[in-house]
């Protein structure tokens, strides 16, 4: 079985990244297509988070290249990479991602506000996500007044509100119980797909990875296996 | 306790920054607290050393004491005359024996001056037997004071004639011992009260600042201590650990603060007050006060840390959840306004209520501002957040609503300095009307019946001294008294005239109008110096406070900032939001407290509100205050950059 033949929305080739004497990435290739959900799995220290950070323009690789829609983004300066993170990428993390002093709808509207959208418009567009994600009525709650699962859904709405090309999720269910985690993954995958965004999920949990179309396994800074879920059919050794 | 110490020692970089911030805060607080206490001690010490010059009558006394104020080159010379009136007359402070008739004791500064000036300008006034003895420091109010103690016979006309009793003169009085306290009407007593007001104005912001710094440590440890609670540490364990950590840090801060104060004392002694500088020892309060500072400050810091920990102790999850903060109650505003009004009313009745109550109410009015501050910041936050169109205003506004106390801690220093500036702006030393500062004539007031004889006597003395001058007799407001005035042809002859006429009318001294108003001028100069010292000190506190709270707010919110940056928010947006969340409350609170200070100062005002001095003070405060707080916020900019560099948000 082969992956989608059309050109990938995000394409990483030969990524190398070291932190002092530690080599976190040792020539990693990774690509993801529009509407596709890919999981990056591996034990702690395998380099999966570093791959996410390089792919999202948070870190600059020491070697290799990252292309978004065919354009190199790893060579851009910090300012332009910041702008890219604001407009082309969305992020969901395990914790600490919502600004505690802002109510949920304003948290979701933040990427739009940062992009210069007027407040009323930004908040209205943000609120439109609450119903479909199953958190209608919680718009004015503050993060401290939301459950873990509700908070993650708000974070998903925020990741998607600016219609990004790629959504990066780093252990998105790490702080949730199993049932809530499964629900959250369902919402994340479904909403990303409907929004036409590619989804990259970094996780060490096979249950989470099951929700994705494809799984990439990493070890010692290298991709060691790649297969399609749910059949878990190896694509290459 | 052992775990607490290990926590402190094993603190990571960020927590170490926190400990250093607290240490710096306690160090600055201690140094300034020492200054406030030291200044009070210094005025008290001066008053105690001046007391012996105010004779306390005792009909069975063994000595007669009289005092007057002479002048040379525009500077006052305190002249104390003593005569034996029985066995064992009391030996004055700073002297080894009671002076015999004709014996002179002079202060070192007067001795030096006598050596420099021609004898007919100064030395001849105190001519007597043998060389003059040197007065010890115990006899002097300040090191460079001009003092002469003259021994006389009890029958000397100068020791029997009554004098014009006022601040600078005392009629001959029989005494058995020297007074140890100054009369309540003396300048020295007035100064000690002013020093206490100044201490309140300086110490209140200091307490607020010290408390904020202490709570900072506790808040920064919240997460780790909450984790300890989760694994079974009892509230007592947590409290003991926190107090131990805060007290150890504070103790170090106190030691460094004392060293800083010790280094600063020599330059501080050069601040001129009441016409002179200070003895080094004056600025060091007694061992009791010192022990109070060494023990009290760490205890206060420990207590504040416990207050900061309250939430962790109540619930292990207390710090993890984040809920809508309860609105601060408007009753805060009501209490604050009531306190300000109470002070304003009380100040009008200061004479009746007594200085102690007014000083206490001033302290309360000041604390009232601290109640009002966070409430106003919250209101401002709701307005800013409600009307914000862009992300900067929204972030700033929500942050203000979320934690108004944090923002208040950043701007409170400046707001309280604003209160001080407003309060003091009306004490305009240049605004005293009708002050005659002429030095072209010297006068004396005598009984009308004696006027002719005195005038002739004066003319005779001036002729013998070869001084060309005109002598006139003029009326004075008091009945049956007239003024005899000498107009020297050469304006530079004033001190020669004074010397030639010394003792013409026993116990009375010829003075120029400038001499007569010199006490008032000194008072106004001192008020100006005092207000500037208080302002500078408060301003320093405000700046250090703003810098420290700004840095600590970055540390406290590092996760949120890191996330914003990660999601592509330019740091400039975060900076702008942080500046706005400081500047908007600063403008409102700074302005508000200036106005509050003005209202409170009005009943005690010396001048109209539009004096140039007041305006300059106001202007400087507004410009420097704004620049200072902006600078303090900018100090944390590199830190903001550093703490947001981590690629993904980490749990604390």
Model description:
- Chain A has 237 residues and is an alpha/beta fold.
- Chain A has a domain at 1-36 and 44-87 and 202-232: P-loop containing nucleotide triphosphate hydrolases (Rossmann fold, 3-Layer(aba) Sandwich).
- Chain A is built from seven helices and eleven strands.
- Chain A has helices at 48-55, 78-87, 104-114, 119-127, 148-160, 178-194, 206-209, and strands at 10-19, 22-32, 37-41, 63-68, 71-72, 89-92, 166-170, 198-203, 214-219, 222-228, 233-236.
- In chain A, the strands form two sheets. Chain A has a seven-stranded mixed beta sheet with strand order 6-7-8-3-9-10-11, sandwiched between helices. In chain A, strands 2-1-4-5 form a four-stranded antiparallel beta sheet, covered by helices on one side.
- In chain A, helix 3 (104-114) runs parallel beside helix 5 (148-160).
- Chain A is globular, with a radius of gyration of 17 Å.
- Residues 1-5 and 231-237 of chain A have low confidence and may be disordered.
- Chain B is of the alpha+beta class.
- In chain B, 59% of the residues lie in helices and 9% in strands.
- Among the domains of chain B are: 1-52 and 193-323, no CATH class; 55-175, no CATH class; 442-514, Alpha-Beta Plaits.
- The model of chain B is unreliable at 312-324 (pLDDT under 50).
- Chain B has helices at 2-9, 13-50, 108-116, 187-230, 235-268, 287-314, 331-348, 350-353, 355-387, 391-402, 404-425, 451-464, 494-500, 513-516, 518-556, 558-566, 571-601, 612-635, 637-643, and strands spanning 63-72, 75-84, 104-106, 133-134, 147-152, 170-175, 442-447, 469-475, 481-488.
- In chain B, strand 8 (469-475) and strand 9 (481-488) form a beta hairpin.
- Chain B contains 19 helices and nine strands.
- The interface between A and B is medium-sized, with 33 and 31 residues.
């Amino acid at each position: 079985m082969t992956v989608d033949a059309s050109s990938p929305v995000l394409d990483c080739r030969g990524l190398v990244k070291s932190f002092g004497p530690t080599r976190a990435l040792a020539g990693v290739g990774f690509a993801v297509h529009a509407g596709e959900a890919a999981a990056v799995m591996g034990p702690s220290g395998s380099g999966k988070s570093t791959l996410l950070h390089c792919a999202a323009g948070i870190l600059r690789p020491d070697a290799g290249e990252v292309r978004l829609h065919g354009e190199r983004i790893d060579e851009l300066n910090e300012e332009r990479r910041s702008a890219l993170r604001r407009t082309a990428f969305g992020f969901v993390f395990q914790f600490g991602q919502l600004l505690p002093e802002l109510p949920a709808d304003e948290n979701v509207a933040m990427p739009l506000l940062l992009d210069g959208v007027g407040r009323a418009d930004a908040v209205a567009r943000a609120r439109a996500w609450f119903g479909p994600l199953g958190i209608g009525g919680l718009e004015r709650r503050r993060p401290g007044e939301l459950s873990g699962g509700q908070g993650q859904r708000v974070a998903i709405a925020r990741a998607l509100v600016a219609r990004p090309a790629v959504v990066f999720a780093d252990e998105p269910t790490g702080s949730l119980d199993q049932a809530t985690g499964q629900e959250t993954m369902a919402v994340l995958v479904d909403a990303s797909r409907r929004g036409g965004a590619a989804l990259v999920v970094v996780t060490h949990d096979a249950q989470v990875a099951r929700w994705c179309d494809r799984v990439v396994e990493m070890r010692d800074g290298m991709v060691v296996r790649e297969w399609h879920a749910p059949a878990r059919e190896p694509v290459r050794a | 306790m052992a775990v607490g110490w290990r926590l402190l020692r094993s603190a990571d970089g960020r927590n170490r920054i926190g400990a250093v911030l607290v240490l710096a805060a306690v160090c600055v607080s201690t140094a300034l607290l020492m200054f406030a206490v030291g200044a009070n001690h210094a005025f008290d010490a001066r008053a105690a050393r001046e007391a012996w010059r105010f004779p306390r009558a005792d009909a069975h006394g063994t000595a007669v004491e009289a005092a007057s104020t002479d002048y040379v080159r525009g500077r006052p010379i305190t002249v104390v005359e003593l005569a034996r009136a029985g066995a064992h007359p009391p030996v004055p402070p700073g002297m080894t024996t009671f002076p015999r008739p004709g014996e002179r004791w002079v202060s070192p500064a007067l001795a030096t001056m006598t050596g420099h000036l021609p004898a007919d300008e100064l030395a001849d006034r105190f001519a007597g037997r043998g060389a003059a003895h040197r007065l010890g420091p115990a006899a002097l109010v300040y090191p460079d004071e001009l003092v002469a103690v003259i021994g006389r016979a009890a029958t000397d006309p100068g020791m029997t004639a009554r004098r014009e009793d006022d601040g600078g003169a005392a009629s001959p009085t029989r005494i058995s011992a020297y007074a140890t306290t100054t009369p309540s009407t003396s300048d020295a007593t007035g100064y000690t009260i002013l020093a206490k007001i100044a201490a309140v104005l300086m110490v209140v912001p200091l307490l607020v600042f010290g408390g904020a710094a202490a709570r900072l440590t506790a808040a920064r440890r919240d997460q780790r201590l909450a984790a300890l609670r989760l694994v079974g540490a009892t509230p007592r364990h947590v409290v003991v650990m926190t107090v131990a950590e805060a007290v150890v840090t504070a103790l170090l801060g106190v030691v460094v603060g004392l060293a800083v104060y010790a280094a600063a004392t020599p330059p501080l002694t050069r601040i001129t007050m009441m016409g002179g500088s200070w003895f080094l020892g004056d600025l060091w309060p007694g061992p009791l006060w010192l022990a109070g500072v060494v023990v009290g400050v760490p205890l206060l810091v420990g207590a504040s840390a416990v207050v900061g920990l309250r939430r962790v102790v109540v619930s292990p999850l207390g710090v993890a959840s984040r809920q809508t903060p309860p609105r601060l109650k408007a009753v805060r505003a009501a209490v604050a306004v009531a306190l300000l009004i109470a002070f304003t009313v009380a100040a009008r009745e200061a004479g009746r209520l007594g200085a102690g109550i007014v000083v206490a109410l001033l302290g309360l009015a000041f604390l009232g501002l601290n109640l009002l501050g966070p409430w106003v910041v919250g209101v401002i936050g709701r307005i800013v957040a409600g009307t914000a169109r862009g992300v900067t205003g929204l972030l700033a506004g929500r942050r203000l609503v979320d934690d108004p106390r944090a923002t208040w801690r950043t701007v409170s220093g400046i707001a309280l300095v604003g209160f001080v500036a407003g309060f003091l702006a009306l004490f305009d030393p240049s605004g005293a009307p009708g002050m005659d500062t002429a030095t072209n004539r010297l006068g004396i007031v005598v009984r009308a019946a004696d006027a002719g004889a005195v005038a002739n006597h004066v003319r005779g003395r001036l002729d013998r001294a070869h001084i060309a001058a005109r002598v006139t007799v003029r009326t004075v407001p008091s009945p049956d008294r007239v003024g005899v005035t000498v107009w020297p042809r050469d304006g530079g002859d004033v001190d020669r005239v004074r010397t030639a006429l010394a003792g013409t009318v026993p116990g009375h001294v010829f003075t120029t109008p400038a001499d007569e108003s010199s006490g008032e001028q000194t008072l106004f100069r001192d008020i100006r110096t005092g207000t500037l010292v208080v302002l500078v000190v408060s301003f320093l506190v405000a700046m250090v406070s703003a810098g420290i709270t700004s840095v600590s707010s970055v540390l406290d919110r590092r996760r949120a900032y890191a996330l914003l940056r990660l999601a592509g928010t330019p740091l400039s947006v975060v900076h702008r939001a942080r500046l706005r969340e400081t500047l908007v409350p600063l403008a409102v609170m700074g302005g508000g407290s200036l106005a509050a200070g003005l209202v409170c100062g009005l009943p005690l005002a010396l001048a109209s509100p539009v004096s140039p001095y007041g305006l300059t003070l106001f202007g400087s405060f507004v410009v420097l205050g704004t620049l200072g707080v902006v600078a303090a916020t900018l100090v944390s900019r590199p830190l903001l950059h550093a703490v947001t560099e981590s690629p993904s948000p980490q749990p604390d």
